[in-house]
Specification:
Elements (H helix, E strand, L loop, with lengths): L2 H18 L4 E5 L12 E6 L2 E11 L3 E4 L1 E5 L2 E5 L12 E2 L4 E20 L8 E6 L16 H4 L5 E3 L8 E4 L5 E8 L8 E11 L7 H22 L1
Length: 234
């Protein structure tokens, strides 16, 4: 048997094994026609076996976080607090009056890379977000405050400023692998940030179990090794 052929075969098998565990970006898209929703509702989105559960929150300086309505429209997720109508532009995620946020909880740890926001009109696009590893059902933010978020497992707040525009914006996320992210307009903004949340892109932090083709590759490597030994003994 030709040793050059054996070498090429071994190289191909190694390449298969090397690429089997490579992480790749996954995008969850939040668009549809679900309307404004109800107070305390949740929406789920699944891509490549990982589910994101999203809930809506508004923040009042006296009462802390309160449940809100999570709307779903053709350009993304929006939030309507319990005290406001759900028309335009208040059906977006905004910081006019009560500040509004979306809590994303992941069924497996995710290294979040970016969030796409899209204003319905021409508005400022500044954001604030918290990522972390939390253990709580979707309603346990009720009554919590900005200062108590770290006690729940969130990291420090990160602010990211945009510009006034009607165009979508991809917000880079700085975070390790986490199971939750609280995302919304800038927490101390001037009340002029409005947008919908169109998508979230991240990388699954866990490496999947070997598939059948990977096991086949390992078997091929073993076979090549045996054939090589036979060549040298001949």
């Amino acid at each position: 048997m030709n040793l050059s052929w054996l070498s090429r075969t071994a190289l191909a098998a190694c390449c298969l094994i090397g690429t089997s565990g490579m992480a790749h970006a996954i995008t969850w898209t939040f668009i549809g026609s679900g309307g404004e929703g109800t107070i305390g509702n949740s929406r789920t989105f699944t891509a490549e076996g990982i589910t994101i559960t999203a809930t809506a929150w508004s923040y009042d300086s006296r009462a802390g976080f309160q449940q809100a309505r999570l709307g779903l429209w053709s350009t993304g997720l929006g939030v309507c607090s319990i005290t406001e109508p759900c028309g335009n532009p208040s059906h977006q995620v905004d910081n006019a009056g009560q500040h509004e946020y979306v809590l994303f909880q992941f069924s497996a740890p995710i290294d979040p890379l970016s969030v796409r926001i899209d204003p319905y009109g021409t508005y400022d696009r500044d954001v604030s977000y918290w990522t972390g590893n939390i253990t709580l059902p979707s309603d346990l933010l009720v009554g919590e405050t900005y200062s108590s978020l770290t006690g729940l497992g969130f990291f420090s707040r990160i602010d990211n400023n945009g510009t006034v525009s009607s165009n979508p914006r991809d917000v880079p996320i700085v975070s390790p692998a986490v199971n939750a992210m609280l995302f919304g307009p800038r927490y101390n903004g001037g009340g002029d940030d409005y947008f919908k949340i169109t998508s979230l892109t991240g990388v699954a932090s866990s490496v999947p179990e070997p598939s059948s083709w990977l096991l086949l590759s390992l078997g091929l490597l073993g076979w090549v090794w045996l054939q090589t030994r036979k060549e040298f003994r001949a």
